[in-house]
Every structure is written in structure tokens, then in C-alpha cells.
Amino acid sequence: MTRSTLTTPPPGAEPPKTHPDGPSAGGSLGSHFSRCFGCGDDHPTGLHIAAVTPDGASVEAAFTVGESHQGAPGLAHGGVLASAMDEVIGMSIWLLRKPYVTARLETDYLLPVPVGTTLHLRAWCTGIAGRKAYLEAEGRVGAPGGPVAVRAAALFIEVDMTHFAEHGDLAALQAEHQDYEVNP
Ligand SMILES: CCCCCCCCCCCCCC(=O)SCCNC(=O)CCNC(=O)[C@H](O)C(C)(C)COP(=O)(O)OP(=O)(O)OC[C@H]1O[C@@H](n2cnc3c(N)ncnc32)[C@H](O)[C@@H]1OP(=O)(O)O
Q: Where is the Thioesterase domain (predicted)?
């Protein structure tokens, strides 16, 4: 991975501490919002990514590139592939059960990805330093051990729930996250 210093854990970064309420090894993560472009069941042209965690710390998912995900004819759009990386990375940090947002996402495109390809995605955290989480992801063609087509490194920043309430759709947030107390 060609990653910058901004997405490389600094000396002293700690390994992530998974939350007891997160899924245990082998469990599925579910969608965080039904209309999310990355994971929402109700998004008509979204990626519909459904992830599992093999070990309680990283996530795995499969995403099949569809007609609505094209850039060049017959090939996946690079922004869509970056979205898939962002989504699985977002899912992997959600294992900590703390809200984080993407601050920086670096993506390497190694192979063209034709429509109809199933990408096997994996994401994991490489370190936590204060509010900063350092994460990586990869997408492999055809099988979990297939050739790597796309790689990403990211910096996510921890926010509190008021971030979503103040900047987003509070009613939609409350409808799907009744377990969170939001005081905008
Ligand atoms: C829905 C409810 C719950 C579910 C949640 C599940 C989510 C799943 C979602 C799945 C979808 C996937 C997820 C999505 O798609 S999330 C959607 C895309 N992301 C966003 O919309 C985020 C927009 N940005 C912001 O809101 C603010 O800029 C944030 C909150 C990130 C920071 O503003 P804030 O005012 O809070 O903090 P700060 O500015 O003091 O910065 C703090 C530190 O961070 C460093 N820094 C900041 N930016 C960068 C940068 N770009 N590169 C390098 N470093 C950066 C900064 O230098 C400082 O470092 P230091 O000086 O302390 O050393």
C-alpha cells in the first residue's frame, strides 16, 4: 500500500479495543442506515454491502459491481470502488461502537474491475491515537485469495452523535438509532 504519513499510525498508537456490544467472531454487522449508499437495503442503486467479522476486529464482505456502478463502459467507476473501501472501513471502525467519520481516504487502483466482478473486501484498524483511527482495506477479484484490485488507507476521526444530528437528518437518525440519546 502506498500510504501517506497522514494515514500511517504514529509511534505510540494503540491497537483498537473492540466493544462488548459489537458482534463476536463470525457475527454479521448489519446496516447502520437503510438508505446508506454503501450498506442500505432500501437504496435502489447502492452497493448493498453486508459484512461479517471473522474475528471481532476486522470485517469481510463481497460486493458485485453492477450496471449502475460503471465509469468507462463495462468497468467499475473509481469513485464507486473508493466508496466500497470507505464503507467497509466505516464498518470495521463501527465494531468499536463509537461514531467516526472519514477525514482522509487514500486509494490505489491496481486492476480494472469489469461489471459483474465480485470483489471480496476486507478492512481492519491499524491503530488508534486519541480521536484518530488508522485503517486499511483491500478488494480482491473473484475470491478472498484472488488478485488485489483496489487498496485503501484511511484516517477516521471520532465524533459524537451530535455531529450527525447537527449536520444530517435528525428524524432519520432517531428513527433508526433509538438506542442513542441525541441532544442537538
Ligand atoms: C448514523 C449514526 C451512527 C452510525 C455511524 C456509523 C458510520 C458508518 C459510516 C460508513 C460510511 C463511511 C464513513 C463516511 O463516509 S463519513 C462521511 C464523509 N466524511 C465527512 O463528512 C467528514 C467531514 N469532516 C468533518 O466533519 C471534520 O473535518 C472532522 C470531524 C473530520 C474533523 O473536524 P473536528 O473539528 O472534529 O476536528 P479537527 O479539525 O480539530 O481535527 C482533529 C484532528 O484530526 C486531523 N485531521 C482532520 N481532518 C484531517 C484530514 N483530512 N487529514 C489529516 N488530518 C486531519 C486534524 O489535523 C487534527 O489533528 P491534531 O491537530 O489533533 O493532531
A: 74-140
